[in-house]
Structure formats: structure tokens, C-alpha cells
Amino acid sequence: MTILRVAVDAPLDTLFDYLAPAAGPLPAPGTRVRVPFGRRRPVGLVMEHAATSDLSPERLKPVLEALDEEPLFDPTLLQLLTWTARYYHEPPGSVAAAALPAPLRQGKPLPEPPTRVSARGPAPEEMTRRAPRQAALLDLLAAGPRRTDDPELPAGWRATAARLVARGLVDMEPEPAAASWDMATPGPQLNAAQEQAVAEVLASLGSFSARLLFGVTGSGKTEVYLTAAAECLRRGLQVLVLVPEIGLTPQLVERFSARLGVPVATLHSGLGASARLAAWADARSGRAAVVIGTRSAAFVPLARPGLIVVDEEHDPSLRQHEGLRYSGRDLAVMRASLSAIPVVLGSATPSLESLRHAGEGRYALARLPERPGAARHPTVRLVDLRRHPAGEGLSGPLLQAMTRHLDSAGQVLLFLNRRGFAPALFCASCGWSADCRHCDARYTWHRRAGRLRCHHCGHEMGVPSACPDCGADLRPAGEGTERLEEALARRFPGVALARIDRDSTRRRGAVDRILDDVRDGRTRILVGTQMMAKGHDFPGVTLVGVINADQGLFGTDFRASERLAQTLVQVAGRAGRADRPGEVLVQTSYPEHPLLQRLLEGGYEAFAEATLEERRAAGWPPYSHLALLRADASQPQRAMAFLAALRGTVEFPQGVTVLGPAPAPMEKSGGRWRAQLLLQSAARPGLHGALDACLRAAPELAESKGVRWFVEVDPQDLF
Q1: Are 501 and 481 within 8 A, CB to CB?
Q2: CB-based burial of residue 487 (10 Å sphere; 0-12 exposed, 13-18 middle, 19+ buried)?
Q3: How many CB atoms sit inside 10 A of residue 439's CB?
Q4: Residues 6+ apart with CB under 8 A from 705
Q5: What is the pTM of this model?
Q6: CA 93, CA 104: separation in Å to the nearest integer?
Q7: What interhelical angle do 328-339 and 75-87 show, nearest 10?
Q8: How far apart are CA 373 and CA 670, in angstroms?
Q9: Which residue has the higher pLDDT, 9 or 521?
Q10: 70: burial class by Cβ within 10 Å (0-12, 13-18, 19+)?
């Protein structure tokens, strides 16, 4: 008797044992099955076979239905799912569900392989007059075969194609999976550092290696990715590229498609369910040569994996903060290890964890210290706001520099990581402020929408016409991108400007349109949040202005300085990327702050070295390991009482330091009161043992009633 051990999406940290179906072949590990589970009939994933079960034979039930003839996941990916569940202390069913596209979780079949439509030749001349639709389709296909899911095919093309097939002018056949892709066009001449980085990556093909590509902004990291990818494809191997946010890096997708000349599948949350499933199936079958996706693409199956690239490896967006909480970067490294393939982690501002790994030899290190060609590093200056007060966020030196660069046909990029018109609305007479009723936070005033919005819980309301307490006028405090945009329109009339933030880019295609206008030179001034700092190449930008560098100087999180340094360096790197020199002005009220001075004098590397030494002395990551047990409840003190009881119940292993319980820095969020317990250890085994003990004890506590809790391993935010 063979037992099927099945991962079912349920809040239980175990696999569930079932018997094989009464008829048909034995479902292999990696296939989906429908199973009886209480009153439900969910879809589960077979993880392994076993000869025995802890349950008595009469309690075992057979699966209701086998849904796949072949495994969706190979043994290596099943290992990755198992490791993910164990490392992040998540139920294996939750991990399996996160790795499957929504239609497959619902039990729907894999899509049929796409059909390729090709023409046997161009349209005859007489067809242009008699059947213009057929002629247009035939001419389109004559330029190259198209897949049936190609969005560029005209509406109603299927009926037209059927008539052309009947006339013997068009062929329709299943899209094959190529054995190799040797279609790359030559790129620019690589410099010595780039050539060495590529050679080291190619030398490690077929075996595991983790390589940190530490290159200054504009140093040509993408050219290294492309050159290495081209050789992988020539050998018939697929390439997986993880990016922080696919909607913000359209240039990367365009460059891979244009240079490599191969099918590129994209995977991200902006796709519809069917499009996402089609891309997933293309990757699994080997029809897609390159897969570019966000963090969840770390789970996508590949027929012939050859190389994994993690671009902007430091970016917090590679971390999933809801549901299954994991790091896409760390999963990529583990997957490469299990698959025996190389992984390249690229960044101009690497995380301190990756820098420590490189310094201790666990990662190889490749440096790109210079920009290629005539491009040079921009000059950086601090603007002391104590000497040059800013009006609506704009100081005199910044305005003068903007005028100078605009007059010389340059473009200007202004960075302010705060959207809306103003981050606060208050009464100067009595001190009333517009505070969110659900959070320990203020509403942000979005003047164009006429709304007050909380950027933490999402609640919004109308704007009062006067102070609710005393009837006096209300005033905005501080600047957001909306206010900055209005101020610039008044100061630079007739100069085309654009704003890029979450509000201005809600509509589909808005990001692409704005960025195209910037790259084409139609937009002269670009205002935006950190969305602009992620991998964009603006050749015409010669001046970058940082409106307020002080937002992260005094943060409560020990990673605040690291994130601020990364953001400042990334934003500054948008200037002077072509042959014109770049200039960066950073407005601050604390120009003598050590962080700013280190960046100014030694760049990111000097900052990182000093910060790593501080972390070592304090015992903070990457020289220790953290886990958070977070709890929240609808009533004050309930979460604190639960965590206090848990700490008093669990016997923590030696070497594990327990901090708390303590209220979260923002105690009330979304109408619930939050608290947390922080676990710290120099060794991972003790930390994971402590988490296991906590998760066993928590459900048994009387104080757990009405409390929600979860564990986050390697948390990036202590909020």
C-alpha cells in the first residue's frame, strides 16, 4: 500500500496522508489531486510517497481525483517548497498554494500548448483588393510567425486565419519548445571588468555558485546579465531573472527581448490569471527562453534551468510581507543551490547581508567600479536648509541649478518619497490635526482627489471645510509630490513636467507612457517617489535633486540608515548616465550627519564598511539572526497579554535572546492593536528551535482567544 503525502492549503503544519485513487495510475510527487478534507474538496499537491502512515488504515481515505498526468514540479522544486515551509515556519500547504497559479489551485487543467500561426508567403496583389483583411493578416504573418495568444493579432483574426488555412496560405501548428536559442544580436563592447564578470559566470555554468555583482549605478550590470544569458540560451538553458517590481522596470523586459531575440515570459501580479498561467506553462514546458518576474517567480518551474539573476538584490520589494512571508532573493539562492546552477545578485548598493557573505567567501564578488564609455560619476553637493530655507520644498540653490540645467537642454529629476499634497493637515489655532481613526498615524491630504487618506490602512474620508473643534482654517504641513508638482508648474511655466508615484500611475500603461516621454525628451522635469530609483535609465537627466534627505536619518529601525543610503545612491545614479556630466543636490537640515558625510566622501562602499563594523559591535544582523512573533487583537492589551503569557510558558534555548513583548512602533493599525516578541540568536538552529516551541505553545494558551499571530523570519521591518 502506497501512502500519498499531500500538501493541503490549511493552517496546519503537516502533510496529510491519503490512499491512492481506486483506479488509474499512481499520482506522482509534484502532481495535483483533489482530496476529501472535512466538508471541503480542496486541491492538494502530492509531495512524496510513503510506505506507512501514523494513521490507522481504516482512517485513511483515498484521493477523489488525480488532476495531472505529469508532475507540475520536479524533485528539485519540491525540495525548495519543503525547505521554504521549514525555514519560514509556514504550513506546507500554504507554500504549495503560493507556488501555484490561481487557476491550478482551483483545479483547472494546464492550458493547451499555444498554436503557432505562420504564412507561406506574402499576400498576392489581387488579395489586397478583394480580401483586404486576409491580405493584412497574411502580410503581418509574413514578417514572422505569431502565437495564437499574441496581443498584436487583430480582432477577429481566427476566422480570417481559418479561411487562409483552407486556401493553403497559412499553417497552424503547435508551438515547439526550442532545443537552443542562438539568436542574440551583438551588444556594445564590454570593458575589462564586465568581461571578467561574464567569464566567471560562464565558467560556473552547470554547478552552483553565488556571485555578488557590485557595480556602481550605470556601470553596465544589465550588459553582464545579457551576455551571460546569451551563452546560456545558446546551450539550450533557460534564464530566470527576478526584479523588485516588474511594472517599474519595463526597459529590462524590452532589452532582453530585443537583444536575445527569444520568447520572454513575464510573471507578476499585474497580469490577469489566464495570462499568468500561460507564462507559467511556457516556463515549465521550455517554450520560454527567459522568465522575468517578481519575487513569486522564484517558484516557477523551468524545463532546463541554467542561470538565475536577481536584479537590485537589496530592494525590500523582493520581500513578501503578507501571507507566506519570504525573501525572493534568498529563495533564488537556495533554488540555485538545489539545482546546481549559478545565481548572480546584482546591485549598486548591495545589502549588508550580501556584502558580508562576499567578504567571508560564501559569495564570489565581481566589481564594476566605473561607468562605461564617456559617462562619469555625477558630482554630489549637500544643500544646507538651515542657510537656504526651502519654500514648498525648493531651496534657492536647487532652483538655480534647475534653471541652469534646463537652459542647457538637460532634464531634471526631483525625488521626494512622500506622495499626496501634504503629509498632515492641522489647525494653527487649536492644534487639531487630521488623525486616522484606525491607526496611530495622520491622514495624508490628496488635494486633487479632495480626500484625506491613510497610507497605512487605506482608510479615506472627505476634507473638512474648517477645523472640527474651533472652526478655524486648516493648513497643510510638509510637502508631498502633488504639492511639489504644483509649485514647479508655477515656477517653471511652459516646461513639461510629470509626476510618477502610486497615485499618478494607477491606470494600466501609465508608467510606460510617463517613462517614454522622459526618455524621448518631451518631459523636462520629473517628480517622483522611490518608484523612480529602481533600474531606470534616463540618458537626458543631468540634474537630480533630493528634496528631503532627512526622512531616514533618525529612524527607529536599525536598518533605516542602510535603506536611506541605498535610496540616495540609487536616485543620485540617475544623473549623468550618458555623455553629459551629472549633478546631484541633496537638501538636508543635517549636513554634518555621519551618514551623509560617509556617502559624500567615500560612496556607498565606505558607508557599508562602517555600518557593518557598527552592526558587528552591536550584534545586529548580519552578525546575528532575528525572528519576530507578531500578534494583534481588536482590543487594547490583548496582544501584549498573549505574548507575555507565551514568553512565560516557553523555555527558550540557550543562546536565544528574547526582547519584549512590546507594543509595535505603530501600535494601532487598521483598527487593531499590535505587539511583538523579538527573538535574536547568533546561530540559526537555536532560533528555529525557539520558533518551533512558540508555535507549539501558542494555540494552547487561554490568552490566544481573539488574537491573531504569525512568525516572520529575517524580518526587514521591525514595525
Answers
A1: yes
A2: middle
A3: 21
A4: none
A5: 0.91
A6: 14
A7: 140
A8: 51
A9: 9
A10: exposed
Contact between 169 and 120 (Cβ < 8 Å): yes
H or E element that contains 488: helix 481-491
DSSP assignment of 32-52: EEE--BTTB--EEEEEEEES-
| C-alpha closest to that of 312 among 513, 531, 476, 55 | 531
Q: What is the DSSP string of 217-264?
A: TTS-HHHHHHHHHHHHHHTT-EEEEE-S-GGG-HHHHHHHHHHH-S-E
State how far the Cα of 106 lies from the Cα of 683, in Å rounded to an integer.
Answer: 40
CB 281 within 8 A of CB 114: no
Alpha-helical regions (H) of 520-559: none
Mean per-residue pLDDT, 464-473: 93
Task: Fill in the amino acid letter for 355.
Answer: L
pLDDT score recorded for residue 249: 66
C-beta separation of 584 from 572 below 8 A: yes
Residue 719: pLDDT over 70: no
Confidence of residue 247 (pLDDT cuts 50, 70, 90): low
CA atoms of 416 and 315, how far apart (whole Å): 18
By DSSP bridging, strand 541-546 and strand 583-588 are: parallel
Range with top average pLDDT, 161-165, 328-332, 525-529? 328-332
Q: How far apart are CA 370 and CA 678, in angstroms?
A: 41
Q: What is the pLDDT of residues 262-318, one digit of tens each?
A: 888 999 887 888 889 999 999 999 999 999 999 999 999 999 999 999 999 999 999
Amino acid at 554: F
Instruction: Specify which residues 62 forms β-bridges with.
Output: 19
Cis peptide preceding 653, ω within 30 of 0: no
Q: Rounded distance, CA 713 to CA 678, Å?
A: 10
Task: Check: CB of residue 674 under 8 Å from CB of residue 664.
Answer: yes
Residue 301 near residue 232, CB atoms below 8 Å: no
DSSP letter at 358? H
Please compute, for residue 23, the number of CA atoms within 13 A of its CA located in the half-sphere on the CB side: 0
Cis ω for the linkage preceding 389 (within 30 of 0) = no
Q: Grid cell 505603530 — which residue?
A: 666
- Give the orientation angle of helix 221-234 with respect to helix 250-260, to 10 degrees: 40
Cβ–Cβ under 8 Å, residues 594 and 613: no
Give the integer Cα–Cα distance in Å for 414 and 541: 10
Percent of the chain, pLDDT > 70? 98
Distance CA(714)–CA(318), nearest Å, equals: 13
How many Cα atoms within 13 Å fall on the side-chain side of residue 315? 25
390-411 pLDDT tens trace: 999 999 999 999 999 999 999 9
Q: How far apart are CA 122 and CA 432, in angstroms?
A: 73
pLDDT score, position 520: 85
- Say what the pLDDT of residue 22 is: 81
What is the residue whose three cell numbers read 513583548? 661
Query: In sequence order, what are the beta bridge partners of 342?
Result: 209
Nearest alpha carbon to residue 201 among 41, 371, 401, 342:
342
- Please compute, for residue 639, the number of CA atoms within 13 A of its CA located in the half-sphere on the CB side: 25
